[in-house]
Structures are given as structure tokens and as C-alpha cells.
From TrEMBL:
Gene3D superfamilies: 3.10.50.40, Peptidyl-prolyl cis-trans isomerase, FKBP-type, N-terminal domain (1.10.287.460). Residues 158-243 form the PPIase FKBP-type domain. Residues 1-19 form the signal peptide. This is Peptidyl-prolyl cis-trans isomerase. Its EC number is 5.2.1.8. The lineage of its organism: Bacteria, Pseudomonadati, Pseudomonadota, Gammaproteobacteria, Cellvibrionales. It comes from Gilvimarinus japonicus. Residues 89-123 form a coiled coil. It is an enzyme of class 5 (isomerase).
Length: 255
């Protein structure tokens, strides 16, 4: 398995060479190398090599792994020329395990730093937002502003609600929107984040609120898809319909 990894790593070298990457060369040399590289991409095999190498190199760059051209070149030529690998299977296993551990530690550190940054930015935003006209604050720290009053019923935590909503991060990035899907969402109110469960119970059918939800009432330090850890979230929510939960005695009768 590690031989294959090393071989694929070696393939990246071909991408680097074909792309005309020469760290020590002049700009003119780089341009000439790039021109030559394009000229050599004529056969199917050359194009396949380039495509695979480009994907690998992109993956390395995204993961912030330095591309060691000489090491790639050695691995590639060793395999091509049937030479004995420079590292034994045991050494490769140790190297890969150490590398994976380092990457994991690096990722955890980045997540920690991001969480701390998001927490601080969220607290600063909440403090500023609290002073804005029309913003109300509940005991839990949830902030809400009435955009449109409703005249229907208010849901309870056990009820099912149908809503239209738009969710954004503090920088305005939209991470979810039923409006964009052109389809309202229906769900049990006690099965969503705490800020929603609390906030929608303040609303009446037909109402439209802006909910500013602290991270501890949202996704907390774990974050969610498209939502960084410890993010304070802003939702524009329109309560369309409330379906009361079935009373226990009614459920028993139905059974």
C-alpha cells in the first residue's frame, strides 16, 4: 500500500516538471519550461500522467503539505527503473503514521484557533447587536427582532412547524435557505438547535423574526457543515404553519 502511495507521490513530480516549475530558474526559463511542458502533452499516457499528478499536487497544496520535487523524482524513477526503494516497508509505515499524526495535531490546533476566533467575534457582535433598536434578549442570551407580527397560534416545543428561513454567518455568508430551495421546511420544533426551539415559540403564525443565536444555542464548538465551530448565527425566519403535537390520550386512542 505504501509503495503505491510513494508511486503516486512520485507522479506529482511529473506534474511539477510538466508545469515548468523550477524554483531556482529565471522567469524566462520558467516560461520556456512551461511552453515545452504543454508541447509534450500529446499522447494519452502523458495526459493521464499529468491529470493524476495535477490532482495529487492540488490535494497536497490544499493540505499544506510541502511538495518535495527531488523526493518525488527519486520515487518515480526508482519504480520506473525497477530499483530497490530507498525506504523499507517498515520505514514507510512509520513515516506515514508519523505524518498522519502530525496532520491530525495540526488540524486540531487550527480548529481550536478557529473556534476561539469565532467565539470572540460572536461575543463582540452580540454585545453590539444588543443595543440596536428593536432587538430583544431572552434569559438564555437569544436575541430576536420582530420583522413582521403574526396573528395565529404560537407553537410549543413538541409541535411540528413549517417555516421559510435564511441562515447566515456574521460575515453575511449564507449557509442554508429554504427560500433558495423554493420549498419551506417542516420539522418537529424539539429536534432542531436550541435557539430555534426557543425562538419559534415566541412567534405566532404569520410572523417573521430575525433570530441572532449565540453559539452555545446553535452548533457549539463542533460546528456543522458549512458552519465553523463556535459560530453565532443569524436567521430570518417566517412561521407559516403550526401542527400541534398529538396529545397522549389521543395517541393511545388511535392505537
Amino acid at each position: 500500500m505504501f509503495n503505491k502511495r510513494l508511486l503516486m507521490a512520485g507522479v506529482i513530480c511529473s506534474a511539477t516538471v510538466l508545469a515548468g516549475c523550477n524554483e531556482g530558474g529565471s522567469e524566462a526559463t520558467d516560461k520556456a519550461a512551461a511552453t515545452d511542458a504543454k508541447a509534450t502533452l500529446t499522447t494519452l499516457e502523458q495526459k493521464v500522467n499529468y491529470a493524476i499528478a495535477l490532482n495529487m499536487a492540488t490535494n497536497f497544496k490544499q493540505r499544506e503539505v510541502p511538495i518535495e520535487v527531488d523526493a518525488f523524482t527519486q520515487a518515480l524513477t526508482d519504480v520506473r527503473d525497477d530499483k530497490e526503494p530507498a525506504l523499507s516497508q517498515e520505514e514507510m509505515q512509520t513515516v506515514m503514521q508519523t505524518f498522519q499524526e502530525q496532520q491530525m495535531e495540526l488540524q486540531q490546533q487550527k480548529q481550536k484557533e478557529l473556534a476561539e476566533t469565532q467565539k470572540a467575534e460572536g461575543e463582540a457582535y452580540l454585545a453590539e447587536n444588543a443595543g440596536k433598536e428593536g432587538v430583544m434578549i431572552t434569559e438564555s442570551g437569544l436575541q430576536y427582532k420582530v420583522l413582521e407580527e403574526g396573528d395565529g397560534v404560537s407553537p410549543k416545543a413538541e409541535d411540528t412547524v413549517t417555516v421559510h428561513y435564511r441562515g447566515t454567518l456574521l460575515d453575511g455568508t449564507e449557509f442554508d435557505s429554504s427560500y433558495a430551495r423554493e420549498q419551506p421546511a417542516t420539522f418537529a420544533l424539539n429536534q432542531v438547535i436550541a435557539g430555534w426551539t426557543e425562538g419559534l415559540q415566541l412567534m405566532k403564525t404569520g410572523a417573521k423574526y430575525e433570530l441572532t443565536i449565540p453559539s452555545d444555542l446553535a452548533y457549539g464548538p463542533g460546528g456543522n457543515q458549512g458552519i465553523p465551530p463556535n459560530s453565532t448565527l443569524i436567521f430570518e425566519v417566517e412561521l407559516l404553519e403550526v401542527e400541534p403535537a398529538e396529545a397522549p390520550e389521543e395517541a393511545e386512542a388511535a392505537e
